[in-house]
Prior knowledge:
By secondary structure, the protein is of the alpha+beta class. Helices cover 32% and strands 28% of the residues. The strands form 7 sheets. A 7-stranded mixed β-sheet has the order 3-9-10-16-13-12-11, sandwiched between helices. The chain has a 5-stranded mixed β-sheet with strand order 20-19-21-22-23, sandwiched between helices. Strands 5-4-6 form a 3-stranded antiparallel β-sheet. α2 crosses α10 (312-323). It is globular, with a radius of gyration of 25 Å. The relative contact order is 0.11. The structure holds glycyl-adenosine-5'-phosphate.
Amino acid sequence: MTTTTDLMDKLVSLCKRRGYVFQSSEIYGGTGSVWDYGPLGVELKNNIKARWWRSMVHERDDIEGLDAAILMNPQVWVASGHVEGFTDPLVECRNCHRRFRADVPEIQTGRCPVCGSSEGFTEPRNFNLMFKTFMGPVEEEAAVVYLRPETAQGIYVNFQNVVTTSRQRIPFGIAQIGKAFRNEITPGNFIFRTREFEQMEMQFFVEPGTDEEWLEYWREERMAWVKSLGIKSSSLRFHEHGPDELAHYARKAFDIEYELPFGWQEFEGIHNRTDFDLRRHQEHSGKRLEYIDPADRDKRFVPYIIETSAGADRTALIVLADAYREEEVEGEQRVVLGLHPRLAPIKAAIFPLVKKDGLPEIAERIHTEFRAAAIHSFYDDSGSIGKRYRRQDEAGTPFGITVDGQTGEDGTVTVRDRDTLQQERVAADRVVTYVADRVR
Ligand code: GAP
């Protein structure tokens, strides 16, 4: 049985072993809290992002997509409040000089969590979490730009562009997936809190006064989407922000939390941001960011915004943690990633039982048919069939297709279900459709 304390270690090790996640710049000793997605990890994250995009943009008429740049005019971050307020209180241990966030419980005990000293900490000072860089060849203050700490602002500054070109009417939304960067003081827990990460954010523009009901609507929609990824309902809950937790822009906010081995943790937020953002950009840019109702041109207002903000990396971590299990099968231990077939990086693995009697040729042909159907499959003819199954169980592949002696006789192959371990004989020329139906 997996205990919660070692689940993270096991997950990190499986991710490395199977090519899900590697430490960034590993051959140089790594770089602080930055991770690379390997061949299977990139497929998993792409599948999560594609499902999000599909549900937000393609399956609805009232949300448009956007891909705004990471580098923005620095005034954006003055207007948004990030230059002034996107800070964490930082303290330094008087003994070992390590730095910590002042607001974490261990620090409040007065004892350093690294060296154990009780000499205490320096007074907290505010540390801005935005990464700075320079635009142009001269490293002077005038050319300072920031790596965006959230994708949302790219949506706000394009609000009028999207209204004009898409001819959407309020209520409507703008969705975006992209990288964000935060110079976190205490990152950690694998891909949970990193310095470079991806967000999937949607900003829904509504008429003031309808914001409460839209917040409720999006709260339910987002939880339903998360459950559609196959995540166990018993490990999910909402957490409503109390007055001390609300961000400077939010009137009301809910987190969707998952119970990870290190406690209940937020991986998505649904926020009522009121008209804070558009008003601030209106003031700072001098451009009107009002919405004019085309049916009644006297009706104009600065829209309220309901935001849904999810981390692609945190969602991937939760999907992986939720899917990980160890069990005994026929007296042997196996590790399984029980990923939902929609999210699994490889949908089917194809195994010729032996490397002779024409079995590899049939297996190759099936593999080619999967490729033609754009279903990611994997061909493996090395090692015992048991070992090949185990490798794919760890990789999270839902179906194993074995071409054996009977295939030559009656044209059928064995399809093994990763979770139930049941084996079914399916006509070789129908096996792609069989898997496609189940993946859908
Ligand atoms: N635009 C609102 C916003 O950015 P947030 O709660 O700061 O709100 C939203 O971030 C989501 O982005 C989080 O729920 C989390 O999934 C992800 N996220 C934030 N900081 C992160 C970090 N350092 N590492 C990984 N994911 C992070």
